[in-house]
Structures are given as C-alpha cells and as structure tokens.
Design the sequence.
C-alpha cells in the first residue's frame, strides 16, 4: 500500500503518444476483459492472462521514472518487512513457519505487487486503459445473459464456460449451479464479487477520463442488480462522495441518488441473507465477520505479523477452517493485517487519514486513488493477487491523468483571465495558478 506522493505527482506529465503505447493500451483493455483466463499451471499457481500482462506492465512502466527517495524507501520497507518476520519466526521456531516454496512464491507475488503500485505513482509513461466503455457494455450483456438464463431457464452454460476458461473447479464453485434461484452473474470472472469489482473499476475509470456520469451510473446500477455485490455498493458510495462531493449541493444530490439506488438494490442483496444457505456460510460473512477473531489472535500472539505464505496454516491453527470451511481468509485487507500485524493496523489508519486530508485540500483524484487502493485490497480475495493489483495500477494511473488534465484546464482558464483582465502582478498570477479547485 504505497501512498501517492502529492508533491511529485502534481508535476508529473503523462505522455502516451507513441505507436507502441497505443498497442499497449489495446493490450491492457483485452487483459482486463480476459483477466482470469488461465493459460498455464505452475505448481499450485494458476498463470492467467492478467498475470502475464502484469509482467509486461512492470517492464514497460520502468521507462522514464523519476522516483522520490521517500516513496522508494517506503516500497523497500514493504518488501523487506516480510523477510524480517519470517527470519524472526525461523529463529523462534514458530509453528506457523511456511515452507521455503510457500514463502518464495508469496514473497515474489508481494514484491511484484509493491513494484506495480510504486510504478503507477512515479512512472511518467505508464500503460493506460483506453476507451473502456465497450468493455463495460460487453460485460453487461454477458452478465444479463447469465442471469436471465439461470433465473428463468435454469441454464448455466455461460457460467460453466467462464469457469472452465478461468481454470476453476466447477464442483467447488460456491454458487451451486444446480440451484440457481439465487442467481448472480459472474461476467468473465470467477465469482460475482470480482465481476462487480472489475465493473466498478472500469466505470469510474471512464468517469475520470470522459466525465460521463449518467451512462456509467446506469451501468453500475445494472451491475449491482445482476451481481448483488455489497462490495460494489461500498465502492460506489465512497468514490462518488470523494470525486463529486465538492459542495453542499453536490453532496446532497449524491446522497439522494445513492439513497434511491440503495432502496432499489438492497432488497436483492439482502435476499441472499434471508435464505439459510447464504447466512453464516455466506461469502460476506466468511470475508468480513469470521476473520475478526483470527486478526485478534494474530495481534495477541504475533504483533509483528505472521510469516508471509502461512495463510492456510493460520486458518487451521485459529479454527477459521473448521468454522467456515475455507482453507484461508479471502479478504486482502485482513491478509495484509495478518502479515504486518500492529504495523499493518497503523498503516491502514494512516492511509485513511491521508484520504480525508486529500479530500479536504481539494485533491479529489489522489484521494480517490488512495481510497480505491484500500477498498480494492479489501474486495480482493488476496492482497497478493497480481490481477487485482493490475486493476489498482490502472485506476491510479487514470487518477493521475485526470489530475493532470484538470490542472491543465485550470491553467488555460487562468491564462485566459490573465489576457482578458490584464493581471500583470506575478503574485496574483501564481495565486490563481495554485488555488485549489473546490
């Protein structure tokens, strides 16, 4: 979780102009669409199109970097902390000490994730997502076909096709395909929550790039109805207030719209919990409530955090496996806190306070990027997921681009005012250039 540097990003110019940049932009869109399509299996790790494109993104984003010393030092700290924890566990012969293979695999994924987030904040020529709305329309059409086919015709062929492409064991898919009365669309992804996460990401990226709120709002509403994802509602509420709540009037309008949407969507979401099969064993319970006792145990017994790669041993040791039937906690925020302990709690608190501060000083784009980083980690099955990190990378880059265009537009307005009113005072000129937009 690397905090974007306001001072550095504010003077960063992003210039995707060359032909290879346009090719990379096209590849990025395809990679997001086919994010979890499996292309190989290496041991227990499923290599996906999204994972491969992460490597491409990492290499391409190293171009034209001007790193800030503080932010690079922070990134190094995130990488070396798990090494310190595992050495401590090895010294004290901890029962949760992972195998060398588990530690190296998890450590490598974590290092790549940190590097991607770092490059998203400092690269002057990152990979961009282009026009994402055609992807949104395609996913909505696929989701509608899945939902209607399962709900009214008891046909789940489109689910099976997507799950096979993702390399998911259909027998272990947590939505029972033989009982689709509580149908939830999955799009091109392995579960409804991830589909909602991708759709939410794409719609807000399109809002930042084009300013078209209505069409993306309709798409988000349809996605919420088809996936019945609480995580999507949370993502929409937080980002909508941050990006568009710039005055009392706009805050009131957002509140009224969100209340109307909640009244429409919540009955469908709550229906999942009225059914006995979706209560204590529901994904929302196993991802949000059940891990609290595990976190309390970790803070009490391992304040520095447990060794990275020991998620399955932790679930077995704390009784989480017995309670939920899940081999490990599938919530990225909890997983981060397990591995970083008390330091992780402090970092999350600092990040939340930074979001508030950025909102108060008028840096809505940076506040949204940081809030998205926190929320996306919580909505991801693992903070070590390269596919999830790539979505976060694209959102941060788009937020930087939106910030740059907003400042450029303001500079043009200031220049026009200078020419029109004859503002010859350098002090007045600098004041107009730097005054935050409210």
Sequence:
């Amino acid at each position: 979780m690397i905090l974007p540097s306001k001072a550095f990003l504010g003077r960063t110019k992003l210039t995707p102009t060359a032909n290879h940049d346009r090719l990379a932009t096209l590849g990025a869109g395809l990679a997001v669409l086919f994010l979890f399509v499996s292309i190989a299996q290496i041991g227990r790790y499923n290599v996906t199109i999204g994972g491969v494109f992460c490597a491409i993104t990492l290499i391409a984003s190293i171009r034209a970097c001007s790193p800030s010393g503080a932010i690079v030092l922070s990134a190094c700290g995130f990488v070396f902390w798990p090494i310190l924890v595992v050495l401590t566990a090895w010294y004290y012969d901890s029962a949760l000490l992972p195998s060398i293979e588990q530690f190296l695999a998890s450590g490598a994924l974590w290092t790549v994730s940190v590097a991607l987030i770092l490059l998203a904040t400092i690269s002057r020529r990152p990979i961009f997502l282009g026009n994402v709305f055609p992807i949104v329309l395609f996913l909505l059409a696929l989701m509608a076909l899945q939902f209607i086919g399962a709900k009214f015709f008891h046909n789940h062929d489109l689910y099976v096709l997507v799950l096979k492409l993702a390399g998911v064991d259909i027998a272990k898919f947590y939505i029972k395909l033989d009982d689709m009365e509580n149908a939830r669309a999955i799009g091109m992804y392995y579960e409804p929550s991830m589909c909602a996460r991708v759709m939410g990401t794409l719609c807000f990226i399109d809002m930042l790039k084009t300013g078209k709120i209505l069409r993306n709002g309709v798409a988000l509403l349809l996605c919420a109805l088809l996936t019945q994802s609480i995580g999507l509602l949370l993502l929409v509420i937080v980002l909508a207030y941050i990006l568009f709540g710039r005055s009392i009037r706009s805050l009131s309008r957002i509140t009224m719209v969100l209340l109307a949407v909640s009244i429409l969507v919540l009955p469908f979401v709550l229906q999942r919990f009225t059914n006995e099969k979706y209560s204590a064993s529901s994904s929302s319970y196993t991802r949000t409530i059940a891990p609290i006792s595990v976190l309390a145990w970790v803070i009490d017994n391992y304040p520095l955090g447990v060794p990275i790669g020991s998620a399955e041993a932790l679930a077995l040791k704390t009784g989480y496996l017995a309670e939920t039937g899940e081999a490990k906690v599938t919530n990225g925020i909890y997983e981060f806190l397990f591995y970083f302990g008390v330091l992780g709690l402090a970092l999350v608190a600092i990040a939340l306070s930074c979001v508030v501060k950025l909102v108060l000083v008028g840096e809505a784009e940076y506040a949204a990027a940081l809030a998205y980083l926190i929320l996306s980690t919580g909505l991801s099955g693992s903070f070590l997921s390269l596919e999830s990190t790539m979505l976060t990378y694209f959102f941060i880059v788009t937020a930087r681009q939106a910030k740059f265009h907003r400042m450029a537009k303001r500079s043009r307005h200031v220049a026009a005012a200078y020419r029109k009113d004859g503002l010859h005072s350098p002090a007045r000129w600098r004041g107009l250039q730097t005054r935050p937009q409210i």
About this structure: The chain has 19 helices and two strands. Strands lie at 38-42, 45-48. The mean pLDDT is 83. The first helix runs from residue 6 to 9.
